[in-house]
Amino acid sequence: MKDQLLTEAQKVLNENFQKGGFTIPSKNLYPFQWKWDSGFIAIGYAHYDMNKAESEISTLLDAQWDNGFIPHIIFHTDTDTYFPGADFHKSELHPMSSKKYRSTGLVQPPVLGFVLEKIYHISKDKTRSLEFIGRQIDKVFHNHQYFYQNRDPLNEGLVYIYHNWESGTDNSPVWDGIFETMDSPEYEFERRDTSHVDPEQRPTKREYDHYLHIIEIAKQYNYDDQKIAQHSPFLVQDPLFNAMLIKSNESLIRLYTLLGSNDDKIEKLEKWQKKAVFQMNNKLFDNELNAYIYYDLRNKKPIRSISSSSFTPLFAGIPSKEDARKLIDTLISNFGGDDHYLCASFDPTSEHFKPKKYWRGPVWINLNWILFKGLKRYGFEDIANRVKADSIELITQNGFYEYFDCRKDVISSGNGAYGGNNFSWSAALIIDMLN
Ligand code: 9WN
């Protein structure tokens, strides 16, 4: 059983691997290289093909901008099966953007620091891996420096995202209130995602208007960070994004220590880290909801919603033991009913929960992997094992889909697997969970 699943997972990854040395998330639906996908994918490869793992990361980092920015999509080819593509995003507007690759002017969760450390741990040839890490690590450090210097206007230690696509959790109900403050035009465009996947499982046309509108504003300012901070209607401190940065800071500190002679960088990372952990608990932990929430910097108010992102600080060791216990209580009471698979992407007790719609409810394997690791870190073995078992069961029964219904009766009926099939990070992270 386990061996068969591993073989199938490897097949998914190998078939999505491209000549350019990177892996697409899913055929047709996502035909380019995505940042956080590449990070998770590299972890999967590291278990059986280190060349591919290294290539995934070095190809991504080759597209880094001169200011340290790493884009969310690298458009390696001209295919038009995805909208919006390179001609819409126009990364060339930014004076420091890559001259070699066209990309978006958006980022995605900063996973690369912990991915490098994971590769090192998995590797059987530590000398080789340390050499590889030595060649890449300064680029990741530069990326963290970009975030702290450009995405933290109040100097709080928490960085902002200026677009829901930067969160990785695109149409979460968390953003609905922000879109209501925006007067987005009704754009005319041809969606491509809805010709690959049932529109019921994807964001609406009106949501896409908002997504495009924020980018049009950023483009007016040539993707200048300071101008974006002043003018973007969307400016949010997101718990998942900041937890990934903190987790990656921690990994960079350990890797620089292993490499030696990088005391200046370690010192900077420790400074960022201390402030960031403090502010995560001080500003983003909601003592009534007992969960990490979001802060809307533009409208100066907390967004008091619970999503699967609310639990990701466990992975980065952010909560105290006591707050971790409270988080688990919230997880179990709101998300953990016996008739549910863990972990829905949005609070199943909320009126905004939609079990089929993308990030409004379905289970995603990458969030489950983050949660599994976080729960283990705090010693919550039983619930960690449940998250792992649920992930494996969902994939075994349905295939390597992009997201899944969290309701057990819907899964048993055979209709609960959604989005793209043969989805790369679902395969990659199952490989890691099985090892
Ligand atoms: C926009 C590639 C990406 C993931 C995101 C997921 C989805 C893209 C889209 O697919 O977003 O970036 O077009 O829907 O939400 O997390 O990285 O797999």
Automatic annotation (TrEMBL):
The keyword Heme appears for this protein: no
Pfam families: MGH1-like_GH (PF22422)
SUPFAM superfamilies attached to this UniProt entry: Six-hairpin glycosidases
Keyword line: Hydrolase
Residue ranges of every copy of the Mannosylglycerate hydrolase MGH1-like glycoside hydrolase domain listed in the record: 30-426
Organism in which the protein naturally occurs: Spongiivirga citrea
Protein name: Glycoside hydrolase
Annotated signal peptide: none
InterPro entries named in the record: 6-hairpin_glycosidase_sf, 6hp_glycosidase-like_sf, Glycoside_hydrolase_63, MGH1-like_GH
Source organism, top-level taxon: Bacteria
GO biological process, alphabetically ordered: oligosaccharide metabolic process; protein N-linked glycosylation
GO MF: Glc3Man9GlcNAc2 oligosaccharide glucosidase activity
Entry keyword Hydrolase: yes
